[in-house]
Write a structure and sequence with these properties.
The protein is an alpha/beta fold. The protein contains 10 helices and 6 strands; from the N terminus they run αααβαααβαβαββαβα. α4 runs antiparallel to α5 and α6 crosses α7. It starts with 10 loop residues before the first helix and ends with a helix.
């Protein structure tokens, strides 16, 4: 048995122990090259080295066999509001959405090092808090609920998600973990139709028979994009995925890339 948490530290364990059979289960086959010097090797590469991959089962196979649902992806392009002013800065005068985004976009251009990283994060995250985006997401969720459809909306802004739906799973103190479990139970058993996810359901979680998945917030790389798509994989019906995207922003660059 090769544990799912395999790391370079466990290689000696594999070398120094004998097994009649080694069985590895991985969603990350070893297809990436080793970077030298300072080797960086994927988990999948370790599986493939010590437990060669002899059988591949692809998502399309699962769709054909009715295990995974088909997905339909729509991109909802929007324009930043250049006219109306909102209270977006905590300490500052009201401004338009375009002015708010442009402020962080300029910060990203002029900053260096850690400050540039912070500016990049803020430039991306500020898009989730735009009032026009929240309003449109709320309208879409209400439409799906009126059609008796189950919807999961994934976002990186807790404040925005809380304005869209009251059913948000998120990191909570240990004594409040039951809230997440209760929401998951209600969603899986059709007691609630909408479930918001603040970070914790973005990968590794199976959500039963959803009809719609809304990717509300910006995703910075292909891995996170694919992990989020994976939440829509279970069920026999086609799952509609809606990606929110502001034109002429970093979001549009990534959506077109992926």
């Amino acid at each position: 048995e090769i544990q799912d948490c395999i790391t370079p530290l466990r290689i000696n364990f594999l070398k120094n122990n004998y097994f009649k059979m080694k069985l590895g289960l991985t969603a990350t086959p070893g297809i990436e090259k080793v970077v030298v010097p300072n080797p960086k090797i994927t988990k999948g590469q370790y599986y493939n080295k010590y437990c060669p991959i002899i059988y591949s089962y692809h998502t399309i196979d699962a769709v054909d066999e009715g295990i995974y649902s088909k997905i339909k992806i729509d991109v909802l392009f929007m324009d930043l509001d250049k006219t109306n002013k909102y209270k977006l800065f905590k300490n500052g005068n009201p401004c338009t959405e375009m002015a708010y985004y442009s402020y962080f976009d300029r910060k990203y251009v002029i900053e260096f090092g850690k400050n540039r990283m912070f500016a990049a994060m803020k430039r991306s995250s500020c898009l989730s808090d735009m009032p026009s985006r929240i309003k449109k997401a709320k309208m879409l969720v209400d439409l799906y609920e009126s059609s008796n459809k189950k919807t999961v909306i994934i976002g990186n802004s807790l404040d925005a998600l809380s304005q869209i739906t009251s059913n948000v799973v998120r990191s909570r103190p240990a004594k409040e973990k039951y809230i997440n479990e209760e929401l998951r139970y209600k969603f899986d058993n059709n007691l609630i139709k909408t479930l918001g996810s603040f970070k914790i359901l973005q990968q590794g979680a199976n959500l039963n028979s959803m009809h719609n998945l809304i990717l509300y917030s910006h995703f910075k790389d292909e891995d996170k994009f694919l992990q989020r798509l994976g939440r829509a994989r279970l069920g026999k019906d086609t799952t509609r995925i809606t990606i929110f995207c502001f034109r002429d922003t970093v979001e549009q660059n990534n959506v077109e890339l992926f």
